[in-house]
Design brief:
- The structure is a single chain.
- This protein is α/β, with parallel strands linked by helices.
- It has one domain: TIM Barrel (Alpha-Beta Barrel).
- It is built from eight helices and nine strands.
- The chain has a nine-stranded mixed beta sheet.
- β5, α4 and β6 form a beta-alpha-beta unit.
- The chain is globular and about 45 Å long.
- Bound molecules: D-xylitol-5-phosphate (DX5).
- The site of D-xylitol-5-phosphate has 22 residues, from β4, β9 and α7.
Length: 213
């Protein structure tokens, strides 16, 4: 029996001037709330510094997506928000010992630990820790901005990961909408991040429901 699909709206595309209302507009239909944290170094954009993240009031479990060069430092700070999950990028932490130490630190902080791979990064690049993480995030855009087009060539990585790790939570992020979500689910993803598709929709509840397959 496939696990239920988790929908994690990314508020990167929300109206920052009315952030609390934007969060409340999806609270009753979403499962997680994803914060895209960007440092302007790992990606050419900055977003959701801790000072802003800590103002968000929500009953939704927080999913912290660290698109930063130094995820260990950011994780320490964001773990104080008691998030459900903290994901770092394999491209930012290249050696196995550092990856394992960060995964342990996230677990000690009471959260699930996720590792993300960008479209050009092969699944084999995270073979060293895939057995030890709770979430694999397969990016379907190059990180940094919302509203980009879905890169379908990443789907085989999802299919392979699902075959090797039937119980692993596999998340996809980037260009996910009602057309691409079925492709992600068919490939084996069970957690979908969507930003612009949801926040540009007039009926956000319907938009979120349309992603569940
Ligand atoms: C990229 C971000 C986006 C965002 C979702 O750095 O991670 O993928 O969460 O953006 P959409 O759904 O608008 O592609």
């Amino acid at each position: 029996m496939p696990s239920p699909i988790i929908i994690a709206p990314s508020i990167l595309s929300a109206d920052m001037a009315h952030l609390q209302e934007e969060v409340e507009s999806i609270e009753d239909s979403a499962d997680w709330l994803q914060l895209d944290v960007m440092d302007g170094k790992f990606v050419p954009n900055t977003a959701f510094p801790f000072s802003l993240a800590q103002t968000i009031k929500t009953k939704l479990p927080l999913d912290i997506h660290l698109m930063v060069r130094d995820p260990a430092t950011y994780a320490r700070e964001f773990l104080t928000l008691r998030p459900m999950n903290v994901t770092f990028h394999a491209e930012a932490v290249k050696d196995t010992d550092s990856r394992r130490a960060l995964i342990e630190a996230i677990h000690r902080g009471g959260a699930l630990a996720g590792i993300a791979i960008n479209p050009p990064t092969p699944l084999s690049a995270v073979d060293d820790v895939l057995g030890g993480v709770d979430v694999l995030l397969v990016m379907s855009v190059n990180p940094g901005f919302g509203g980009q087009s879905f890169i379908g060539s990443v789907l085989p990585k999802v299919t392979e990961a699902r075959k090797r790790f039937p119980k692993l939570m596999i998340q996809m992020d980037g260009g996910v909408d009602d057309k691409t979500a079925p492709l992600c689910i068919k490939a084996g993803a069970d957690n979908l991040v969507a930003g612009s598709y949801i926040f540009r929709s007039k009926d956000r509840t319907h938009a979120i429901a349309s992603l569940r397959g």
